[in-house]
Design a protein that fits this description.
- With 622 residues, this protein is α/β, with parallel strands linked by helices.
- It has 18 helices and 27 strands.
- The chain has three domains: 250 residues, Glutamine Phosphoribosylpyrophosphate, subunit 1, domain 1 (4-Layer Sandwich); 178 residues, Rossmann fold; 150 residues, Glucose-6-phosphate isomerase like protein, domain 1 (Rossmann fold).
- It is globular and about 80 Å long.
């Protein structure tokens, strides 16, 4: 959620810090700040609520010099968005500065103890506890110890002792007034990456700030502490001592972090969907065997065939993709599928059959609830798989196997191309498991051929943009929407409603179309549009009857239908035509105009599309 950057080297730190924070804006934030050290001035902190542009103006008016520094974008958890609660936070009387991502669950008991020791708190955050706690441990060091010698072992020890007292999650970047060449990073449950340069080191919450700076990275793992100077990096485990760190090559596309002529990242990523779907399928379609294949599942076909129940888990958009996957897998493979909210799965303790298999669905690979659910199921001895977009992310590493989306960076908070890529991967899994069970060669081949045509059909669905824009302007002032679909299109209705809520702040609900008459129909009036997803499938006539029920009560109807549907035009107020495809792929095509609808309504209402209020891209707290 929050974004962290850090730098130590030979140039002005704020140049990288501000640029890096801009790269992390997509994670969501309500305030931002930086801290640098320029002896003899000590640690200088500049921070404020609002956008990074405001922070940049403050730094232009009052520069913060120094060749070492940390930066932070905050998404409020403890205390509202205020200047005092913005990070970084001081420890002691300016001896320590800390930027923190995560939640310290035992902060109140630690705070009470530190107040008794004489520490004075200036914020309502849990993070200030960490800063004071580290300062408290530093004061316990032997003052005769030469910390600059012996690889800063006493400094390591002070940080380790402080971290052992924390309960919760953290990604930390730490500066020390009395050690102005040392930057420390630590992680437990919140991602951090170290960039290795020539005579400089970087820290970031994810790879995006490092693109263009260095192509060598070290992934800091849970319970590890990294100590950096300009020319040296050491990593120790909080409890077990020195760690031999692995330097790997940064796999990131710098173009993915640029707008490339689009007005917003969300719009750019909507248009990237055909290519993202191609990338998800590349090398995974086997026409000869009429099936799909995956290289990272790490289980043999015989072992996978023994899975009699699949559990799909995720949060938000990923949960909706899981619902699409349930329909796909049960239709093609006839394998029972359960779809669980990750936040509930961790605590619900459901009875699981001994031959169950978990798939954790996540764009970032760092979602705290999904990671916790995966760890809980893994702890119980069940095999776990990840469907993930970010290579080397925590969930990707901790799962027993998995499938990367290869969708490229998704910067817009409202997920678009990750959703359609997830649904595409789940469709391929449905074919794969189907061919392991009862799905015949001819049916499998037809399904694979439909997959091959999918990127082109999504590309044609993108041509609806201008028509959807006009519809969006027509209904932009409506404050309630219903989204309705059946079978494969029901989860797409949920996802369409979520997109509208996320970026337009308009109340919207998704339902199976037939369920509308069991309560939600009470909401229908001339000011409440109903958005129907209608495919040429076995329940077409049933959905048309549901449309008539809405119209009979004066409700406006926006219909997303397959090309050539003439019957709908006599009933619906507005019609959007998309290409028809196989039933199990239709939601991947039909979701495109719903993404456009949310986007253009947000624009018409003056909303910040890429930085919606209160939201974060990577939710790394429970």
């Amino acid at each position: 959620m929050c974004g962290i950057v850090g730098y130590v080297g030979g140039r002005e730190a704020t140049e990288f810090l501000v640029q890096g924070l801009r790269r992390l804006e997509y994670r969501g934030y309500d305030s931002a700040g930086v801290a640098t050290i320029a002896p003899p001035r000590g640690i200088q902190v500049t921070k404020s609520t609002g956008r990074i542009e405001h922070l940049d103006r403050l730094l232009a008016a009052t520069p913060s010099p120094g060749s070492i520094g940390i930066g932070h974008t905050r998404w409020a958890t403890h205390g509202p968005a205020t200047d005092e609660n913005a990070h970084p936070h001081y420890g002691g009387e300016g001896a320590v500065a800390v930027a923190h991502n995560g939640v310290i669950e035992n902060y109140q008991s630690l705070k009470d103890r530190l107040i008794a020791e004489g520490y004075r708190f200036r914020s309502q955050t849990d993070t200030e506890v960490v800063a004071h706690l580290i300062d408290s441990q530093l004061k316990r060091l032997d003052p005769a110890a030469d910390i600059a010698a012996v690889d800063y072992q006493p400094l390591f020890r002070a940080v380790q002792l402080a971290l052992r007292q924390l309960q919760g999650t953290y990604g930390l970047a730490i500066l020390f007034r009395d050690y102005p060449t040392v930057l420390v990073a630590a992680r437990l449950g919140s991602p951090l990456i170290v960039g290795v340069g020539q005579g400089e080191h970087y820290v970031a919450s994810d790879a995006s700030p490092l693109v263009g700076q260095t192509d060598r990275i070290v992934r800091i793992m849970d319970n590890e502490v990294a100590l950096m100077t300009a020319d040296k990096l050491r990593v120790v485990h909080r409890d077990q001592g020195p760690v031999r760190h692995l330097v790997s090559v940064l796999d990131a596309d710098s173009g993915g972090a640029e707008l490339g002529g689009f007005a917003h990242y969300m719009l750019k990523e909507i248009f990237e969907q055909p290519e993202a779907i191609r990338n998800a399928m590349r090398g995974r379609l086997d026409m000869d065997a009429a099936t799909t294949r995956f290289g990272g599942l790490n289980l043999s076909p015989q072992q996978l065939r023994q899975a009699k129940r699949l559990i799909l888990t995720g949060c938000g958009t990923s949960w909706h993709a899981g619902l699409v996957g349930k329909y796909q897998i049960e239709a093609l493979a006839r394998v029972p599928v359960e779809v669980e909210y990750a936040s509930e799965l961790r605590y619900s303790n459901p009875p699981l059959a001994g031959n169950s298999l978990l798939f954790a669905i996540t764009q970032s690979g760092e979602t705290a609830d999904t990671l916790a659910a995966l760890r809980e199921i893994k702890r119980k001895g069940y095999p776990t798989m990840a469907i993930c977009n970010v290579v080397g992310s925590t969930i990707a590493q901790e799962a027993d196997g998995g499938i990367y989306l290869h969708a490229g960076p998704e910067i817009g908070v409202a997920s678009t191309k990750a959703f359609t890529s997830q649904c595409t991967v789940l469709a391929m899994l449905a074919i794969y498991f189907g061919r392991l069970h009862h799905l015949g060669y001819d049916a499998g081949l037809r399904a694979v051929e439909e997959l091959q045509e999918l990127p082109g059909k999504v590309g044609r669905a993108l041509e609806t943009g201008e028509a959807v824009k006009r519809i969006a302007e027509k209904y932009a002032q409506a404050n309630n929407f219903l989204y309705l679909g059946r079978q494969f299109n029901f989860p797409a209705a949920l996802e369409g409603a979520l997109k509208l809520k996320e970026i337009s702040y308009v109340h919207a609900e998704g339902y199976p179309a037939a369920e509308m008459k069991h309560g939600p129909i009470a909401l229908v009036d001339e000011n409440t549009p109903s958005v129907f997803l209608i495919a040429r499938d076995s329940v077409y006539d049933k959905v048309m009857a549901n449309v008539q029920e809405i119209k009979a009560r004066g409700g406006p109807v926006i219909a997303v239908v397959c090309e050539g549907d003439r019957r709908i035009r006599s009933v619906a107020d507005d019609v959007i035509e998309v290409p028809a495809t196989a039933d199990f792929l239709q939601p991947i095509v039909s979701i495109v105009p719903l993404q456009f609808l949310a986007y253009y309504i947000a624009l018409a209402r003056g909303c910040d599309v890429d930085k919606p209020r209160n939201l974060a891209k990577s939710v790394t707290v429970e």
